[in-house]
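User: Just a sanity check before I run the rest of the batch. Below are the structure tokens for the first item. I only need the designed sequence back.
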């Protein structure tokens, strides 16, 4: 079964093909440079850019993979959460294609797709514990199947990636700053700065990173260049420790889970990876991360999630809604 995946939820436009669980190719255009001067994504510019590039990206994917539109068996698209105007470009494109090819449409939750991306390397095993840490979201899930995710904890304020980006901005780094902070951290001393490990003194699995962000931004504004590496290493450590403690608690509460999946842009972070690999070894659990290129927003994860749902018989009617950030994505699949 050949599944096309379409992604346009934020500032990456991408299309990808997955055949029988295997990635055939992806065409992706990033808008990072367009938004960098504004220090964040400008929604109106983002949707216009998605609209400009989505057709040519589809053509180049077909040329690169040697496939024709008619070969596509199912069309998957990120239906949310994200910027509504951006999402609508991908969803309208996917609906039009599904209609003209007479192929089933499947709307994919962008956050769940980030986690299911671990399957691009090797078929995943269920049930699993999923830690999602991206620019807009931080959450823990108990994952029963590609369609059944039970949320165990969520972020009450700023997401992990948001804390990286705002701290990096105060350091004078370009947006999005997480990757650069991580690179600087590799040659810094993580013991140099004392930063808070927020919202741990409770018995739930929710996260709160606004306190870490406020503290780090205040400190970062007055740093001399030669201390920035140490500061980034200390920030990496504070973030990784906080995520590790709640992940360990989720394992305590779900002792039957033997797999940990970690995904989203922040899952590319080197300190977080090392910290969670150690946790998994202590708990004798398997740990999986998508390869770094599939941690950031991409369409391979949408095509893979769509294919996983389609083989189980899930699909959506053409009146499927597009869901902006802040609204729960309904489980409104139809079975084919
Ligand atoms: O998942 P993603 O590409 O987009 C969203 O859906 O939000 O995540 C982007 C976020 C940004 O905040 C970026 O700074 C962060 O992931 N990020 C990192 C690293 N690479 C990307 N944060 C920490 N360390 C990294 N290596
Ligand atoms: Zn994302």
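Assistant: Here's the designed sequence for the first item:
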């Amino acid at each position: 079964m050949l599944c096309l995946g379409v992604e346009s939820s934020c500032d990456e436009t991408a299309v990808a093909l997955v055949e029988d669980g295997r990635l055939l190719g992806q065409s992706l255009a990033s808008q990072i440079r367009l938004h960098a001067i504004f220090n964040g994504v400008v929604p109106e510019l983002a949707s216009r850019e998605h609209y400009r590039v989505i057709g040519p990206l589809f053509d180049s994917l077909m040329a690169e993979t040697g496939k024709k539109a008619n070969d596509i068996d199912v069309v998957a698209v990120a239906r949310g959460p994200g910027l509504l105007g951006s999402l609508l470009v991908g969803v309208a494109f996917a609906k039009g294609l599904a209609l003209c090819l007479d192929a089933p449409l499947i709307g994919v939750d962008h956050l769940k797709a980030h986690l299911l991306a671990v399957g691009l390397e090797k078929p995943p095993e269920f049930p699993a514990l999923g830690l999602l840490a991206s620019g807009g979201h931080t959450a823990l899930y108990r994952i029963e199947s590609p369609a059944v995710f039970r949320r165990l904890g969520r972020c009450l304020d700023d997401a992990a990636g948001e804390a990286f980006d705002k701290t990096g901005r105060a350091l004078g780094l370009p947006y999005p700053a997480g990757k650069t902070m991580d690179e600087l951290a590799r040659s810094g001393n993580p013991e140099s700065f004392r930063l808070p490990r927020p919202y741990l003194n409770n018995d739930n699995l929710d996260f709160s990173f606004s306190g870490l962000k406020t503290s780090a931004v205040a400190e970062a504004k007055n740093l001399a260049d030669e201390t920035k590496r140490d500061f980034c290493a200390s920030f990496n450590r504070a973030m990784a420790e906080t995520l590790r403690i709640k992940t360990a608690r989720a394992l305590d509460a779900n002792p039957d889970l033997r797999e940990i999946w970690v995904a989203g842009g922040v899952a590319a972070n080197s300190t977080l990876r090392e910290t969670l690999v150690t946790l998994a070894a202590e708990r004798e659990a398997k740990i999986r991360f998508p390869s770094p290129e599939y941690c950031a927003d991409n369409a391979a994860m949408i095509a893979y999630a769509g294919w996983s749902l389609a083989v189980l018989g899930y699909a959506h009617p053409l009146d499927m809604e597009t869901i902006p950030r802040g609204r729960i994505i309904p489980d409104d699949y139809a079975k084919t």
